[in-house]
Amino acid sequence: MRTQRAAVKTKGVVRANEKADVQVARVSFAVIGISSCAIGLWAVASLVGGMVASGGPVALAANWLKAVIG
User: Fold this and answer.
1) What is the distance in angstroms between the CA of the first residue and the CA of the last residue of the chain?
2) 56 phi and psi angles, rounded to 5 deg
3) CA distance 13 to 21
4) Does the predicted model carry a pTM greater than 0.90?
5) What tens digit of pLDDT does each residue of 46-68 get?
6) At what angle do helices 57-69 and 2-54 cross, to 10 degrees?
């Protein structure tokens, strides 16, 4: 009888750990998704700011080429 009770307790612990692992994975996925969205929004804001500062998309491309080529 004791071996059966130990087996039942072990199964319960494994199930609880699996649920915790799933929750950690979900939270990690959410954090990575939110971080990538924030980085993407920052990049778009930087491009728009660069276009406004340089006078438009064509001027931005021309200024970028000048900066890269020298």
Assistant:
1) 83
2) 130, 175
3) 12
4) no
5) 999 999 998 999 999 999 899 99
6) 100
